[in-house]
Amino acid sequence: MREKETKVEVISSSEVFRLSEDNLGALDSLIHAWKCSLPLEETWVRQTLGVPSLFVRIEAVMKKGLRVLNISGNAPGIGLLKERHSRFSQVFSFCAWPNFRILTDSDTELGSDQLWLNPISETEATRSKDLLLIRFNGQK
Length: 140
Hints:
The protein is built from 5 helices and 7 strands; from the N terminus they run ββααββααββαβ. The chain folds into 2 domains: 9-72, no CATH class; 78-135, no CATH class. The protein has helices spanning 21-37, 44-49, 78-84, 86-91, 122-127, and strands at residues 9-11, 16-18, 57-62, 66-72, 100-104, 118-120, 131-135. With 140 residues, it is α/β, with parallel strands linked by helices. A hairpin with a 3-residue loop joins strand 3 and strand 4.
């Protein structure tokens, strides 16, 4: 559950806005239910932080209140956020994280991941102590 905060900044495509305490409470409940529905995986994030994902993406609309459309532990666009939003880089100090590399197949485009992660081959990954972000197109 979220610690008591006085404000939450939300980065949208066009503006920054604040969520009300009621909306934050509703999001807490939804995220808790989402978290409980996931299988327990032995990942660095789970072992170190006790959560299923470093980032949670919430797709929602604000029309007559908050309407959540989707909650996902897959957070694409981290590289773009790091490059374009200085606040994101300040809040999430990338140098404080362990070393991550990206493992992908030749059919998967790296997208913005290449802006913050270095790729690694499958052969290198078997010997590496780096943490891996795995991106495959689903064909393997």
